[in-house]
Amino acid sequence: MNPDAPAVRERPRTADLLSYGGGRRSANGWRPARVFDASGRMNTGDPGVEDRNLAARAARGEASAFSRLIHKHSDLVYRVSLRMLGANDASDASQEAWVRAWRNIGSFRGDSAFSTWMYRITMNTCLNTRRKESRRKEQEVPEEFTQLPEPSGTGSSPEASALDGERREEIFEALRNVRPEHRAAVFLRHMEGLKYQEIAEILDIPAGTAKGWVHRGQAELLVLLSEEEGEDR
Amino acid sequence: MRGLSEEQRWTVLEKIGAYATGDLEGEEAREAERLILESEDHQRLAESYARLLAALSMLGQESPAAPEAVVSYAVRRAYVAAFLRQAEQFTRGLVEDYLGALALYLNLRPARRIGP
């Protein structure tokens, strides 16, 4: 095991997080919401309400409230940054996302879950980082794609092949070469398990476009992976 | 997929992907099924998609924890920004009060009457 690799733990599906507003932990390390929040106020049991209260207090300048939001959602922000940008830039992007969140916390109205709002800020931060980078180095998906080779593996289950460390790295590497907007859509759909409507809200695009980006992104990913396999042969 | 233009290849690729994702319904789904059944290449594509989507889903189950340095930096920044905001408000209030008192002292502004 790579000692530099970030610690990994089980978590609930993001769709659950979104519906509850984020940060609800259960027996596998995710705590249920407490009855009273840090300031002693009654908590209705819905973490979405708790997040909105914390955000409102943070907007009034209470750093302790914002600190609680950071602790609740830091894994989400880091995970998005890591998948979008890779390990080298993930920490910087996470920090930048939190700085932006603090600056704009007054604009959080509570219409959507706080986690959705953080997804949007983090995605924008990551996409801006990539745009700056791509101005320096234009990176495009190859125009040509050859015949797809036989899928790798010996007919074992998809789960088994997914656990293969090398294959895992190949997928992340290929994902980093997919066009950023398409990568964001594929990541949110297939790795975070979000619905198209939620993806559309985060990326600020129509739901139909979100679906189109997912389809194009997964096609790009498949082509890139098949090219890698082709090169390995 | 021999004999198809580049654009047609992408269209086929995306259509089979959309089918593998379960996003097609009705006639579109049947058309994708026909497409898959008519060629071994397309069947291989569908298999590759199934594997890829399963792998992505598995990878999505993992949650890398944010490094402590990232969390503590963000918290520190928030506290410093909050302190500066309060210090700015305090200083502004102090300066305003001082200028008000000075204006009053120099008889530049009449004193406000308190009460009826």
How would you characterize the overall build of this protein?
The complex is a heterodimer of chains A (233) and B (116). Chain A is an all-alpha fold and 233 residues long. Chain A has 2 domains: 9-138, Orthogonal Bundle (Rna Polymerase Sigma Factor, Chain: A); 147-233, Winged helix-like DNA-binding domain superfamily/Winged helix DNA-binding domain (Arc Repressor Mutant, subunit A), CATH 1.10.10. Helix content of chain A is 64%, strand content 1%. Chain A is built from 10 helices and 1 strand. Chain A has helices spanning 14-20, 47-59, 63-85, 87-104, 114-136, 158-163, 165-176, 180-191, 196-203, 207-232; one strand spanning 8-10. In chain A, helix 3 packs antiparallel against helix 4. Chain A starts with 7 loop residues before the first strand and ends with a helix. Mean pLDDT of chain A is 75; it is low at 1-44 and 140-163. Chain B has 4 helices and 1 strand; from the N terminus they run αααβα. Chain B starts with 5 loop residues before the first helix and ends in an 11-residue tail after the last helix. In chain B, helix 1 (6-21) packs across helix 2 (26-38) and helix 1 packs across helix 3. Chain B has 2 domains: 6-60; 65-116. The longest helix of chain B is centred in the C-terminal third of the chain and has 38 residues, at 68-105. With 116 residues, chain B is mostly helical. The relative contact order of chain B is 0.06. The chains are: A mainly alpha (233), B mainly alpha (116). At the A-B interface, strand 1, helix 3, helix 4, helix 6 and helix 7 of A face helix 1, helix 3, strand 1 and helix 4 of B.
